Recover the amino acids of this structure.
């Protein structure tokens, strides 16, 4: 039986978008992974980011397979595409679960425990201090739990704590104004935003994958007969 042309070109268009989506997902997730400090990505969220990198790369591959399978009406390529989407769909469920876990009280308590080990911040290696100073600049905050006190003595408090935004809560320290708000609240808020983004990405790509699986299955069930059949 001849393949329905509407289904064929719908699948063709879907896979083109799917391929582009894979490139975008891979690019964004790699960028976030390489700039963990800027995005405040914690060790608890990192596995989900790594999984998104893998899913983005595999999405491009299977988008190409589906693209070729739809054009050539090739049963083998379409079958591989369907199975690949099914596996990636299960992986995206895992991303959603990891994103949800990052929001739990237990995960937040673990983050606080890990942050406690950084104190005093002045005793940490230079690269750790520089990474945390980026957090302070982005969050308009200072220290972790107790403001500038988390840096040790007042001479060790970096310029990243300087109160450059007078609308924020600030305090005087050694003749200068520094942020009085600790960064833990900012870090927790950012974790919620990252986990929301992970869950949103998982849901969006999950819907696209379900659509792709339906289209490829319909095309396979139509027989994919005559030329291009393996």
């Amino acid at each position: 039986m001849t393949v329905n042309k509407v289904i064929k070109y719908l699948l063709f268009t879907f896979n083109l978008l799917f391929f582009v989506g894979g490139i975008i997902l891979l690019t964004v997730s790699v960028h976030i992974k390489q700039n963990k400090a800027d995005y405040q990505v914690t060790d608890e969220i990192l596995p989900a980011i790594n999984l998104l990198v893998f899913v983005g790369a595999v999405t491009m591959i299977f988008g190409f397979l589906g693209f070729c399978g739809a054009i050539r009406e090739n049963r083998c390529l379409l079958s591989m595409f369907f199975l690949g989407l099914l596996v990636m769909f299960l992986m995206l469920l895992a991303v959603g679960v990891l994103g949800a876990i990052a929001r739990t009280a237990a995960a937040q308590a673990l983050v606080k425990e890990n942050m406690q080990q950084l104190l005093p911040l002045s005793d940490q290696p230079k690269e750790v201090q520089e990474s945390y100073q980026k957090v302070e600049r982005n969050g308009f905050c200072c220290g972790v739990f107790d403001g500038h006190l988390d840096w040790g003595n007042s001479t060790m408090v970096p310029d990243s704590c300087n109160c450059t935004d007078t609308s924020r809560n600030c305090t005087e320290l050694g003749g200068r104004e520094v942020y009085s708000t600790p960064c833990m609240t900012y870090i927790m808020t950012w974790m919620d935003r990252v986990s929301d983004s992970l869950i949103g990405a998982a849901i969006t790509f999950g819907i696209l994958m379900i659509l792709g699986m339906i289209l490829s299955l319909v095309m396979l069930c139509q027989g994919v007969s005559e030329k291009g059949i393996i």
Notes: The chain has two domains: 5-106+190-221, 120-186. The longest strand covers residues 170-173. The two ends are 15 Å apart (CA to CA).
